[in-house]
Write a structure and sequence with these properties.
about 500 residues, mainly alpha, about 0% strand
């Protein structure tokens, strides 16, 4: 997630788009200050969070070494195409700010743009739940009352932490930036140390036994499919530079930062997964408590390895939570400034904090935190739901890139393209990949996502009424009907037990 100090720099130095909002001031817009290095760090910081610490167990529950290699190849290629899409869109439509949400709106209209903004925002809030679950699960190793992060005590303590962060951020971003400077190193050091030590204690015979995967893993296709939502979750943030694209010193740096950050993080994530298969048998990794990276390192070097990873995780996750909370408020704020969300979400305090957006974000995180108490596996449920909610915004961004490549003039493309054929191929592959992810997520998470999406239309209705506009066009009414029907089916499916959390 974007570093807190990066957001502060963006708001302080790049205020062209935000200069006259609420109580924020209204001075002369300044030149954007985010350099290529800062944007690249933003992408890396966006993707390196809780997910990487959970990868060993999540992969071992689904597949062996062969399936993991194929899964990372598929995810790497698909997400690379998506990274190329964000690079192309940043250059070809420089007028569109706030990334994913703006692309969906430009390509498919205001209602789907609203859905994209809401879905992306909701995914950030649900993703924040994984941080609290993982922290409590980590502490649960020494305090059994916290369990796997889903006990009543764990939820109460997580709620206290959630609202403590709300009060911290509400005071102003500057008060929060010192924390992020510490966690930037804390989140990378334990991961890199883990990879190095795992290679030192690597057992070729154990690795060979894990090649095919256990009998419970099913066919190779099923093994690869079972890992898809986990790979989506850890790559969330690849769009981080595009979200703050309006603050870049040079527009082309947005795409470059996306690619540089993606390649570096991809290498780290794949390494964490693969080296774990050389430490423990696949079935043992699958039974580790989260964060499973700590359990793998404990098996390699002893108790201190578990303690080292656990301490680094807690510091890292708290910093990531801070930054993702800022992102959630930013998404709602930008949508409200564009009049696609109710105007109360565009209000800011004297400290330049969008307090109503921050409050709504914290409230949704609280609701999902309580819901995890009713799930079979709190962490995996929150992880999978986060990924599923993100898929529609990603799919719409990729589909818009495909439209832009096929009909550049009609879609308002700026400047010469990088090659019509290349743009079409990249956008088509990204669109197919995100469509496959929706299929791989399965009906369960599609329906649960619609349960979240459908009620959000009330915010869209309020925004339209504030503008004195017609509530829905005929096409928008069809989309509304589909989303409501899907949400109703999801509620019925949960009620009668067809699907379970």
């Amino acid at each position: 997630m974007p570093p807190a100090d990066t957001l502060e720099d963006a708001r302080a130095d790049g205020g062209g788009g935000d200069g006259g909002r609420g109580g924020g001031g209204g001075g002369t817009p300044k030149t954007a200050q985010l350099s290529l290095l800062t944007l690249t760090a933003l992408v890396v910081g966006s993707m390196v969070g809780a997910g990487v610490f959970s990868l060993p167990r999540r992969f071992a529950q689904e597949t062996g070494v062969t399936g993991a290699l194929i899964a990372w190849a598929v995810a790497g290629l698909g997400m690379l195409m998506l990274a190329f899409v964000f690079q192309t869109l940043a250059v070809r439509r420089p007028d569109l700010d706030a990334g994913v949400y703006a692309y969906a709106k430009a390509g498919f209209g205001e209602y789907l743009g609203f859905f994209s903004a809401f879905g992306y925002w909701a995914s950030v809030c649900v993703g924040n739940v994984t941080y609290w679950v993982l922290i409590m699960s980590t502490l649960g190793a020494v305090a059994p009352a916290l369990g796997d992060g889903d006990t009543a005590l764990a939820i109460v303590l997580s709620s206290v932490g959630l609202w403590a962060f709300y009060l911290l951020i509400r005071r102003g971003v500057k008060e929060a930036t010192a924390i992020n400077r510490i966690v930037t190193a804390a989140k990378l050091v334990p991961i890199l140390v883990f990879v190095v030590l795992a290679l030192v204690f690597f057992e070729p015979s154990v690795f060979a036994d894990n090649l095919r995967g256990a009998d419970y893993a099913g066919s190779l296709f099923d093994q690869v499919r079972g890992t898809t939502l986990a790979t989506v979750f850890v790559f969330l943030g690849v769009e981080g530079a595009s979200v703050y694209s309006r603050h870049a010193q040079r527009r082309r740096d947005v795409g470059r930062a996306t690619l540089l950050g993606f390649v570096g993080v991809f290498a780290v994530f794949a390494s964490v997964t693969i080296v774990s298969y050389g430490i423990l048998p696949m079935a043992e990794i699958a039974r580790l408590r989260q964060p499973s990276m700590a359990g793998v390192l404990e098996a390699a070097v002893g108790t201190w390895g578990k303690t080292f990873v656990s301490a680094g995780l807690i510091v890292s996750v708290l910093g990531a939570y801070l930054a993702w909370t800022l992102m959630a408020a930013e998404v709602l704020f930008v949508a409200a400034k564009d009049k696609d969300m109710p105007r109360f979400l565009a209000r800011v305090s004297r400290s330049d904090v969008p307090v109503p957006a921050l409050l709504l974000s914290s409230a949704l995180t609280q609701v999902v935190l309580v819901v995890t108490a009713f799930s079979g596996d709190a962490f995996d449920f929150a992880l999978d739901l986060t990924s599923a909610l993100t898929l529609i915004p990603f799919f719409l961004a990729a589909a818009f890139a495909l439209k832009l490549a096929l009909w550049p003039v009609r879609e308002g493309a700026a400047g010469p393209g990088t090659g019509a054929r290349r743009e079409v191929v990249v956008a088509a592959l990204a669109t197919l990949y995100t469509a496959f992810l929706l299929y791989a997520a399965g009906l369960k998470f599609v329906l649960v996502s619609l349960i979240v999406y459908a009620p959000a239309t009330l915010l869209f209705v309020k925004a339209r009424r504030e503008l004195g506009r017609r509530l829905f066009s005929p096409r928008e009414a069809v989309i509304l009907a589909v989303s409501v029907a899907g949400a109703a089916l999801g509620i019925v499916a949960l009620a009668v037990g067809w699907i379970a959390l």
